[in-house]
TrEMBL record:
Signal peptide: none annotated. Keywords: Acetylation, Dioxygenase, Hydrolase, Iron, Metal-binding, Oxidoreductase, Transit peptide. Its cofactor is Fe(2+). SMART domains: Lactamase_B. This is MBL fold metallo-hydrolase.
Amino acid sequence: MIFRQLFEPESSTYTYLFGWQDTGEALLLDPVMETVDRDLQTIKDLGLRLAYTLDTHIHADHITSACRLRALTGCKVAYPAQDDLPCADIGVAEDRPLNLGDLSFRPLFTPGHTETHHCYLLDHGGQPRVFTGDALLIDGCGRTDFQNGDTAALFRSVHEKIFTLPPDTLVYPAHDYQHRHVSTVAQERERNPRLNDAIPFEEFEEIMTNLDLPYPKKIDVAVPANRKCGDCPEDAVEQLHRIGGKSPQGWPS
């Protein structure tokens, strides 16, 4: 397996690149519009061709490049089936994993940040990895006050779907604002200040209620575009830049 963790600094988004040497195929998880050229060049440099894009959820802080990448490469666009997006070629669900060669991306339905959010579990070579989107961040979690977010659902999702994975499972989030790259299930269960094992739901609910976060600056542009898999007006990315540049520390978590 070929694996790369790529970073988009404006939204502090991690895009993950997976490649399978036997077929020469690649998959991009949570790709960002601004990094299309970089991502395609990286794939080319590795001797791969893009077969799939895959998103964890409908993002509010950036526009996915899924549709543009499909136009440029002929790749298939995959989204959680529950999003019911006409623009998606493939709908994934817990009973419908997405395969890339011998790699199987097992969807985990983890609502809370959004109502259809999915994480993806990849167990290959004896080292399980979970790609947690915005459900679980390193020492944090995604906010729950828009896109039908639900604090109780997020608490259950993390504790029942992620924290029940083997303790050495590597945790790769969709964002990090302090240049951290990876955590583990054991580490998050021990020290996550919102969701560690010692924090009951009532305390978590109080934490989330009192975050006092501003309305997401880019949501009114990003969400409509992402409901079309990133097939957005020509000036949509420019609109995002005009809205306010780099996201404030910790946004949108």
